[in-house]
Amino acid sequence: MQLFQSILLSLASLAVLTACSNNIPTTSSTTATTVAKPVEIVKASSAPSVAKSEAKHGDPQKGGQVIESGIYHLEFVVAPEENGIHLDFFLQKGDTHEAIPDAKVTAAVQMPDGTQKSLDLTYDASGKHYGVSLPSKAMGEYKVVVLSDIKGEKVNGRFSFKR
Q1: How many folded domains does the chain comprise?
Q2: Does residue 11 sit within a domain?
Q3: Residue 120: inside a domain, yes or no?
Q4: Domain of life of the organism in this record (predicted)?
Q5: Does the global pTM surpass 0.70?
Q6: Across the chain, what does the average pLDDT equal?
């Protein structure tokens, strides 16, 4: 009976560890990759904005999808444009969300039809973020991997959105 209980406890522990491991981001000292929940982009409305009382470290600062990876705050924002989609990426450091202006940032985009596009994001000093226009009017799900190189340190995030 005691052997049966030991085996049952071991199997239950293994099942819990397996179920939990699917939601744990992969992180190392030089690379971090995490997945954010998908969002759907829609045209902005003229509704008044609501001020947040106190933003927490992991909360969206710009209304986008957020990944916290070690000391880094990654926020991905999409907005429809007349001829495509504008992608904004806020790469920030620390609890104060200090912008990182000197990183090399690339977006690998899987289009709704399965084709791939690679886009280099440029830094906008006035907006303190990286951005690029994606020329596409295709409807469906877009999967985006943002690859950031911060002085040799790789910090990557996976995002998705629907148009």
Answers
A1: 1
A2: no
A3: yes
A4: Bacteria
A5: no
A6: 76
pLDDT for position 155: 96
Q: Region 19-48: what's the mean pLDDT?
A: 41
Token pair belonging to 129:
């973020």
Q: Cα dist. 71→39, 60, 93, 124 in Å?
A: 24, 15, 6, 22
**Residue 152 in domain:** yes
> Which pLDDT score, from 0 to 100, does residue 95 have?
87
Domain that includes residue 138, residue range: 28-45+53-162
User: Taking phi first (over 0 means left), then psi (-120 to 50 degrees means alpha), and beta for anything else, what does residue 48 get?
Assistant: beta
Name the range with the highest mean pLDDT among 2-6, 21-25, 50-54: 2-6
CATH number for the domain harbouring residue 133: 2.60.40.1220
Alpha-carbon dihedral angle through residues 59, 61, 65, 67, given to the nearest 10 degrees? -60
CB 33 within 8 Å of CB 157: yes
The answer on pLDDT for 7 being more than 60 is no
